[in-house]
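User: tokens in, sequence out, please.
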């Protein structure tokens, strides 16, 4: 900047050019001359003051540059702050200057802001810290420049935080950013400050790297105390456990020896819990290797890491609290050690089972075993509801039965659905939405088998001599029935059932598990834990096996599981799972049968003169044959007979009889239709090998007899009653059918009176 006063020659030249001095003798008014001189003097004085202020700004600019040369970053910061303050104070002088001068000055000062932040960012990110793809290095003291200017990390970061990263500096009015005008420089400053704050004050970058190292078991990690460098690179190791534990040790040493307490607070809050959890998981999952020798040096290393983590938690006082008790308990408690060895044995057996199931031959039928049936079942003829085996059946408490001197035992109801009306919104539909026109499931199932044609089944009707007269003979000897499609190659006395290799596989797995546990000394561990693992082995086996059986061979899994349980009465969990599996599969099929029957009954109600029998002939009967009777027959044993009879009780009574009994009236035409429905269902659901089972015979006889009397006149029905043919029916059942079939007339009333009189039931007790 030029001096304020010119040299002597220049001053003389200016005086000579002054018109006032040059023409002094020509001025007439001396006072006018004086005013002009004073004005000129005032103007020159003001310019002198402005130039003096600009000179101050120039001096501050020189000061900033000198501080840069000396690497005095803190002084640079305060010099820039003073410079901005002076510019604000002398703004009136600054705006008097040319626009070019203003813009060039503003641009230059903004560049100094950017230069300072670039320098601070470089020192922090490349001098104090040096982070690469496989190393994290920290230098607490550094030397920079030709003069080896020394910087201390603590002091430098204290200056950076107090100057750029406080609550005041985070606002949009922070002077360092608010006074900058040029967008590019301003954006650079903001970006560098954000990077410093994110990665070297909050340490997001280092925290992310440590988390990745903890999770990545393929990385070898080492820490050099002398160089303060954490190194990591992928590589194989002869001892996996040693590599993982040494990795944890390196990370913990890096944290404790590198970071200041206030920095550790940030990092430990994020990775402390992860470090302790992974250390415990590593020790637990490798307990057999870690604890096989009490003198194993890795045990001491784990204890050392655990102690360091406890110390970190106590000293830092972060939101991560850790006392190390889990690892101490793991390393010192013998029961825990034995439990871990049991875990290892269990895992090995589960792995073996999974591998075994990859071989399809293991769940393909390869053997037959005999199974006693009829003799056992004849001693237990009661149909038990599902899930209530070996319980005493409850006696009927109905008022009408209590007063029935005939002592008839009404059939027991095995279904929870009683008196269900045919309704589109029936609860069954919530589970199975069966649409014959749209759903191909039933068609696919039935088309895969040979089944009775529509013409064959339809021929069994009330207008055809179809052998019904023979069926009505309740006393008929059923010991030598004709074979039907429901009959398989089964001996009524001893049933041979087919099994796969699964029983052998599980037996071997169980023996291995129990044998290994005995060698381990499981009696020294928690008995409940051993029982838990034994039950879990059974559950896991069944769960794995379930995935390999489908709707076509589900029964085979039950057969195999039952065979396993028959050889070992202690496998209660497996037995329970098999029982529920059987019940669930039958229950699903019962719902399908119920839906199909409901569709047929609805057809009878809406189109009684010319009903379609598609639901029964083309869908229901093949479905019952191939999806229920055949699988249950293949199961064999007491379960087979019991479940088949329970299903027939559900089909005959819950799906058909009790639903029809909810109707208001049965027309003459529908009495014939229902009779034909009973004929179709009864003739296609016969299981010959159950003919010697009294309960089965009773169910079918009663159901068939309903089909016989429905189309008859009242007189004919009463003749049957007088002959004792209604011996399977209670008094109220007979009366209920009469009220459905016939109008309220004196003849019907007399018939009902006769029934009460014969059954010795008083009219007033009705």
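Assistant: Sequence out:
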């Amino acid at each position: 900047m030029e001096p304020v006063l010119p040299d002597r020659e220049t001053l003389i030249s200016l005086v000579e050019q002054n018109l006032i001095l040059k023409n002094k003798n020509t001025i007439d008014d001396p006072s006018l001359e004086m005013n002009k001189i004073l004005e000129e003097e005032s103007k020159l004085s003001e310019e002198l003051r402005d130039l003096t202020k600009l000179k101050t700004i120039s001096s501050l600019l020189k000061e900033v540059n000198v501080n840069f040369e000396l690497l005095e970053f803190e002084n640079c910061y305060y010099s820039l702050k003073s410079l901005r303050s002076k510019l604000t104070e002398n703004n009136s002088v600054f705006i008097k200057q040319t626009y070019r001068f203003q813009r060039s000055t503003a641009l230059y000062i903004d560049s100094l802001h950017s230069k300072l932040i670039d320098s601070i960012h470089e020192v922090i990110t490349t001098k104090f810290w040096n982070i690469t793809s496989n190393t994290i290095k920290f230098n607490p003291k550094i030397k920079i420049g030709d003069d080896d200017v020394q910087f201390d990390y603590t002091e430098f970061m204290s200056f950076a935080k107090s100057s750029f990263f406080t609550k005041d500096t985070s606002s949009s009015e922070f002077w360092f950013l608010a006074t900058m005008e040029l967008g590019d420089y301003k954006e650079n400053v903001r970006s560098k400050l954000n990077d410093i704050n994110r990665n070297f004050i909050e340490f997001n970058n280092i925290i992310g790297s440590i988390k990745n190292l903890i999770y990545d078991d393929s990385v070898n990690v080492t820490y050099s105390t002398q160089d303060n460098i954490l190194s990591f690179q992928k590589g194989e190791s002869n001892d996996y456990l040693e590599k993982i534990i040494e990795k944890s040790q390196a990370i913990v040493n890096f944290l404790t020896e590198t970071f200041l307490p206030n920095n550790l607070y940030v990092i430990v809050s994020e990775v402390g819990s992860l470090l302790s959890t992974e250390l415990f998981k590593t020790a637990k999952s490798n307990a057999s290797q870690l604890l096989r020798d009490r003198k194993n040096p890795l045990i001491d290393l784990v204890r050392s890491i655990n102690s360091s983590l406890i110390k970190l938690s106590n000293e830092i006082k972060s939101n991560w609290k850790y006392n190390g008790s889990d690892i101490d308990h793991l390393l010192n408690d013998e029961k825990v050690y034995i439990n871990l060895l049991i875990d290892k044995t269990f895992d090995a057996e589960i792995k073996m089972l999974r591998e075994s199931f990859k071989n399809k031959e293991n769940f393909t039928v390869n053997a037959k075993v005999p199974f006693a049936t009829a003799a056992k079942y004849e001693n237990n003829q009661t149909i038990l509801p599902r899930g209530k085996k070996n319980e005493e059946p409850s006696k009927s408490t109905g008022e009408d039965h209590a007063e029935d001197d005939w002592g008839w035992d009404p059939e027991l109801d095995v279904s929870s659905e009683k008196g269900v009306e045919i309704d589109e919104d029936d609860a069954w539909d919530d589970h199975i939405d069966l649409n014959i026109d749209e759903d191909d499931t039933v068609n696919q199932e039935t088309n895969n088998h040979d089944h009775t044609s529509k013409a064959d089944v339809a021929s069994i009707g009330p207008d055809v001599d179809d052998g019904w007269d023979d069926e009505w003979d309740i006393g008929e000897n059923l010991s030598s029935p004709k074979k039907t499609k429901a009959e398989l190659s089964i001996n009524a006395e001893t049933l041979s059932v087919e099994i796969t290799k699964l029983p052998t596989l599980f037996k071997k797995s169980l023996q291995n598990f129990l044998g290994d546990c005995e060698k381990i000394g499981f009696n020294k561990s928690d008995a409940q834990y051993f029982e838990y693992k034994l039950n879990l082995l059974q559950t896991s086996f069944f769960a794995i096996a379930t995935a390999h059986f489908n709707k076509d061979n589900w029964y085979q899994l039950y057969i195999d599981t039952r065979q396993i349980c028959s050889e070992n009465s202690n496998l209660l969990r497996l037995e329970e799972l098999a029982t529920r599996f059987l019940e669930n599969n039958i229950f699903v099929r019962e719902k399908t049968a119920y839906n199909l029957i409901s569709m047929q009954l609805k057809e009878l109600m809406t189109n009684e003169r010319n009903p379609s029998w598609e639901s029964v002939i083309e869908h229901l009967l093949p479905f019952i044959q191939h999806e229920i009777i055949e699988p249950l027959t293949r199961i064999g044993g007491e379960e087979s007979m019991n479940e088949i009879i329970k299903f027939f009780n559900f089909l005959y009574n819950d799906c058909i009889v009790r639903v029809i009994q909810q109707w208001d009236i049965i027309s003459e035409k529908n009495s014939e239709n229902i009779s034909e429905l009973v004929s179709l269902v009864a003739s296609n659901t016969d299981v010959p090998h159950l003919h010697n089972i009294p309960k089965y015979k009773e169910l079918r006889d009663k159901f068939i007899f309903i089909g016989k009397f429905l189309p008859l006149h009242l007189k004919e029905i009463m003749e049957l009653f007088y002959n004792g043919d209604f011996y399977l029916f209670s008094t109220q059942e007979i009366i209920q059918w009469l009220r459905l079939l016939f109008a309220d007339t004196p003849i019907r009333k007399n018939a009902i009176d006769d029934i009460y009189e014969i059954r010795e039931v008083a009219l007033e007790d009705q």
